[in-house]
Write a structure and sequence with these properties.
The chain is of the alpha/beta class. It folds into 2 domains: 32-246, Alpha/Beta hydrolase fold, catalytic domain (Rossmann fold, 3-Layer(aba) Sandwich); 283-486, no CATH class. The protein has helices at 8-30, 72-80, 107-125, 139-149, 184-195, 231-244, 256-275, 290-311, 321-341, 351-371, 382-403, 408-428, 430-433, 436-461, 464-481, and strands spanning 33-40, 43-50, 57-61, 84-88, 100-101, 132-137, 154-160, 174-180, 206-209, 212-219, 485-486. The strands form 2 sheets. It has a 9-stranded mixed β-sheet, sandwiched between helices. Strand 9 (206-209) and strand 10 (212-219) form a beta hairpin. The longest helix is centred in the last third of the chain and has 26 residues, at 436-461.
């Protein structure tokens, strides 16, 4: 068997069981809920409701770089509790074809446009005499608070990972704040917001002053993304709305976060046994010395930001995408030059390896898009993905060659160098490249999933086919992750 080498049949069985269990959870969360896609003007809207539901309407808004799919964790249990739930894509996000625009530094700029968009969705679903509940995450929390202040048909609100200077002692009137246990600053702000109503209210306690009610609760073991699948947080949201509308419900809160992780991990685990069916065409592995490893890690990490930051072209209508494409290109080309000088070959192109990896990545993307986050681009993003690929392909070609057969510490050094280089770029231009900090988790997730599959394919067919395939997939992932923006 070899070192920690489960036989391919056993790995395949374990992967299949993991995928089946995860799908049971994820589909169970959807059982009995009708999911329909529609639009309010140009805004894509997905509605969730049980057949014949007549409960209050709930409008849910996602955070920055989010999408409708990311808010399913809250939409599904609320729908199972009898509410009619509507989740929409903000301008420039998900499958919305129109970009965000305006001045992000003033309320009457970008924020005003997002407020108007949110109000249009509320207008489309509101019914006389039944206040609409609002649920929002991160960026959306400020938008929802400001929208609610301008309307008289808003009911209870649930704000997740919230921050808004528009929250005061009187507004919003019925407010639940949910924050991940690992979001220290936002967790502190949530308690402060509750104490605006009643001083010294502890976390979890109910603050009451006249008709104003407010509570700050914590979602255990959660950060800014995991909080969206916290069972404690979602149960608290259902209870808050039920109390506000004098309703009773006890929907099952499924472990959707673990279901998503299990499904994606199962797909990665299953790829290994499948990749072993590829013809063995890879040349012998050419290991780098420690000195060359250090050069391949450090030199591009320093040179790429030093060259790319002054050249930042600002051509693509996606935040930091053009810079990232340039950074990837410089980083990857430098590594390819070094590899060529050291005699490290990319090998020949395996069409079978290229096709298999693209097919598996498409299956992974379908699972992501259905259960976790938008992964399919609207037409206006296709050329953006193509532009990012000009940098992503050389980067992934070099990465595939460096990762093939490399021990864990070598892989950490190479990929850690790239993450560090993004940090250096932010330090050189913090105001212009701040959003690169939000790219880092996407890159790390890419390494853990697609990167793992790429190494398994490269072991059979060499680095050329996996590098080309993963370059295209990286461009795709980055192209659909960040908002379209037009200043």
């Amino acid at each position: 068997m070899g070192k920690l080498n489960l036989s391919s049949p056993l790995r395949a069985v374990l992967a299949a069981l993991l995928i089946a269990a995860s799908l049971w959870v994820l589909q169970g969360a959807r059982a009995g809920v009708e999911i329909t896609d529609g639009a309010v003007g140009a805004t894509p809207v997905t509605s969730f409701a049980k057949a014949g539901a007549d409960g209050p309407h709930v409008v849910i808004a996602h955070g920055f770089a989010g999408s409708r799919q990311m808010m399913q964790g809250y939409a599904l249990p609320l729908a199972r509790a009898g509410y009619r739930v509507h989740v929409f894509d903000f301008l420039g996000h998900g499958r919305h074809t129109l970009p965000m625009s305006g001045d992000v530094s003033v309320i009457e700029g970008t924020t005003r446009r997002l407020m108007d968009q949110t109000s249009a969705v509320i207008d489309a679903v509101a019914e006389p005499g039944m206040p609409v509940a609002l649920v929002g995450h991160s960026m959306a929390t400020d938008v929802l608070v400001r929208v609610a202040a301008e309307r008289d048909d808003i009911g209870p609100m649930v704000l997740i990972s919230a921050f808004s200077q528009a929250i005061d002692a009187q507004h919003p009137r019925q407010l639940l704040l949910i924050t991940g246990a690992w979001e220290a600053a936002l967790r502190g702000y949530a308690v402060e917001a509750a104490q605006m109503v009643a001083a010294h209210t502890p976390e979890g306690g109910l603050a009451v002053n006249g008709d104003v009610e407010r509570r700050a609760v914590v979602a255990p073991w959660a950060e800014h993304v995991a909080v969206l699948h916290s069972r404690a947080g979602r149960a608290a949201a259902v209870d808050w709305l039920d109390a506000a509308y004098a309703r009773e419900s006890a929907p099952r809160i499924w472990h959707t976060g673990w279901g998503i992780l299990g499904l994606l991990a199962g797909l990665v685990l299953l790829f290994g046994p499948v990749a072993k069916r590829l013809p063995q065409t890879a040349a012998p592995i050419q290991r780098l010395t420690h000195t060359r490893l250090a050069v391949a890690s450090i030199l591009p990490a320093v040179v790429a930001p030093l060259l790319a930051v002054p050249l930042n072209p600002n051509l693509l209508p996606v935040l930091v995408a053009d810079y990232l494409a340039l950074h990837l290109a410089i980083f990857g080309i430098l590594q390819l030059i070094l590899l060529r000088r050291w005699g490290v070959s990319l090998g020949g192109l395996s069409v079978a390896g290229f096709a298999l990896l693209l097919l598996w990545c498409a299956a992974f993307g379908f699972a992501m898009d259905r259960y976790a986050a938008n992964f399919w681009p609207v037409g206006s993003r296709v050329w953006i993905i193509a532009a990012i690929a000009l940098g992503a392909v050389p980067y992934m070609l070099a990465d595939a060659a460096l990762m093939r057969g490399a021990p864990v510490l070598h892989r950490l050094a190479i990929r850690g160098g790239f993450i560090a280089s993004l940090g250096l770029a932010v330090a050189l231009d913090f105001s212009g490249l701040f959003f690169l900090l939000m790219i880092a988790p996407v890159i790390v997730l890419f390494y853990l999933t697609f990167g793992t599959m790429g190494r398994q394919a490269a072991a059979r067919v060499g680095p050329l086919a996996p590098g080309l395939a993963l370059g295209l997939v990286l461009a795709w992932a980055l192209g659909v992750s960040f908002p379209l923006f037009q200043s």
